[in-house]
């Protein structure tokens, strides 16, 4: 589908305007990019419009939030006019009703935008505004940040149509999703926000949920973790953002695999998720090696091992892979994947072409599906992990993958089972998985160090020492792994 397919034969309404937006906040109560509300006054020529935007959700770049707007005389907000618009049950009432709020409001930053806008209409009545913005946000202290972007606003119709329009534009224009609003950029000039890694939110399923409802909840939960770490990956404040985004992708891939017997996903999703996970994985592996593993491994190295050369070489490689990960997250390829995935999940794209029998299976209660899935995955782990401490690296790796899939499945379905049983089971499984993960990190680190020593001769001595250190610790872990496996293998799968 091309962008022109969204236009009616008649010429759409177009406009080119210059906008000034001033954001306000209560004096002494400086907001941050995660504030619950944003208040602005927009100037377009002689007209002034005030807008109150409440905190909402962001999914694949689609902002969904309550917004209240009305004309205002002058550049100062008129809170009484906003109060007349806001429903009595809205949390905005509590914000606008703060004592002396109007007197305490002060301008924070100014946004100057040269905007070219067009109204796009579909034959079925859906309507969008497409705006191209070029300008900057300016703070009182003199700091500024450029703004260059395309903004799509759904005026009338379904979110599905907005996603389809975005995909059509991607066909010809190299766009990427920007999770920062103009307000976010302005607040970022005032508040030195430290982006932290985002872990998965607790997932609460209901026993009356259908298989389809449970899948949507799980998939959205996984995507939320992925989205929540994108900014951290791009800005590079915390290496943990790479790890947590990668975990979100692994959880999503596990969910797709888990439900594949009843909800088959397009093969392209699996291929593309493996691609972005791989880009993040290379950055994560080298960052762990450079940031923590080498510090421990070379702490007692002799002077002739030249620990500095190994550290520097590993850090340089980690930096290059981090740049590649940032480029991947900022790419059109990733943008297209996330939009397509979100659209498929929200619009239940798996239903297309399904037989009546398959559609009926989607309506079954999730409890039976969850029980059978956990039993099957528990049995697979017991089979693959038999004699775990004695297994070779490759066979143990297969057991680790089985343990990881079982843990994700148990966490997805934990709210459906007895709380105490689930907690005991997940604790034992997590301890086992952590130990298997550490052993796998040793194998990965050893391979990276081998390649480093071969490609950069000056690091050979230090890399060899580090590999020996890691190998000795892996051998020492034998009895601990044996005990962890014995503890887990005695447990039964949780029951509801």
TrEMBL record:
UniProt feature coiled coil, ranges: none
InterPro entries hit by this protein: CHAD_dom (IPR007899), CHAD_dom_sf (IPR038186), CYTH-like_dom_sf (IPR033469), CYTH_domain (IPR023577)
Boundaries of every CYTH domain copy: 1-193
SUPFAM superfamilies recorded: CYTH-like phosphatases
Record domain CHAD: where: 208-496
Protein name: Inorganic triphosphatase
Lineage of the species this protein comes from: Bacteria, Pseudomonadati, Pseudomonadota, Betaproteobacteria, Burkholderiales
């Amino acid at each position: 589908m091309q962008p022109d397919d969204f236009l009616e034969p008649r010429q759409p309404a177009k406009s080119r305007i210059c906008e000034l937006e001033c954001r306000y906040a209560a004096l002494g109560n400086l907001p941050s990019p995660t504030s619950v509300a944003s208040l602005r006054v927009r100037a377009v020529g002689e007209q002034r419009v005030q807008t109150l935007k409440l905190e909402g959700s962001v999914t694949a770049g689609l902002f969904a939030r309550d917004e209240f707007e009305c004309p205002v005389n002058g550049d100062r907000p008129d809170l009484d006019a906003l109060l007349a618009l806001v429903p009595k049950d809205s949390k905005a009432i509590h914000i606008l009703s703060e004592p002396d709020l109007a007197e305490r409001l002060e301008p924070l930053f100014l946004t100057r935008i040269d905007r070219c806008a067009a109204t796009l209409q579909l034959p079925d009545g859906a309507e969008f505004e497409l705006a191209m913005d070029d300008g900057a946000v300016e703070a009182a202290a003199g700091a500024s940040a450029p703004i260059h972007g395309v903004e799509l606003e759904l005026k009338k119709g379904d979110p599905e149509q907005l996603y389809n329009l975005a995909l059509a534009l991607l066909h010809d224009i190299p766009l990427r999703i920007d999770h920062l609003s103009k307000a976010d950029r302005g607040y970022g000039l005032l508040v030195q926000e430290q982006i932290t890694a985002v872990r998965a939110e607790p997932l609460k399923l209901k026993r009356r949920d259908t298989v389809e409802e449970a899948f949507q909840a799980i998939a959205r939960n996984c995507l939320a973790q992925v989205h929540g770490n994108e900014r951290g990956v791009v800005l590079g404040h915390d290496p943990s953002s790479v790890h947590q985004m990668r975990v979100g992708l692994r959880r999503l891939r596990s969910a797709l695999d888990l439900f594949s017997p009843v909800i088959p996903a397009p093969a392209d999703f699996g291929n593309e998720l493996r691609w972005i996970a791989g880009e993040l994985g290379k950055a994560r592996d080298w960052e762990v090696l450079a940031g923590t593993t080498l510090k421990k491994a070379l702490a007692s190295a002799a002077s002739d091992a030249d620990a500095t050369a190994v550290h520097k070489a590993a850090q340089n490689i980690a930096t290059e892979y981090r740049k590649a990960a940032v480029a991947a997250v900022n790419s059109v390829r990733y943008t297209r994947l996330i939009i397509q995935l979100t659209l498929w999940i929200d619009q239940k794209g798996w239903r297309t072409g399904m037989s009546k029998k398959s559609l009926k299976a989607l309506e079954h209660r999730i409890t039976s599906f969850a029980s059978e899935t956990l039993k099957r995955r528990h049995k697979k782990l017991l089979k693959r992990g038999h004699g775990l401490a004695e297994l070779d690296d490759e066979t143990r790796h297969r057991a680790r993958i089985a343990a990881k899939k079982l843990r994700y499945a148990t966490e997805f379905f934990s709210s459906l089972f007895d709380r105490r049983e689930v907690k005991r089971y997940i604790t034992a499984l997590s301890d086992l998985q952590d130990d298997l993960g550490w052993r796998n990190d040793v194998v990965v680190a050893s391979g990276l160090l081998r390649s480093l020593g071969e490609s950069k001769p000056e690091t050979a001595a230090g890399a060899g020492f580090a590999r020996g250190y890691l190998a000795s610790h892996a051998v020492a872990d034998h009895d601990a792994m044996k005990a962890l496996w014995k503890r887990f293998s005695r447990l039964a799968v949780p029951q509801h």
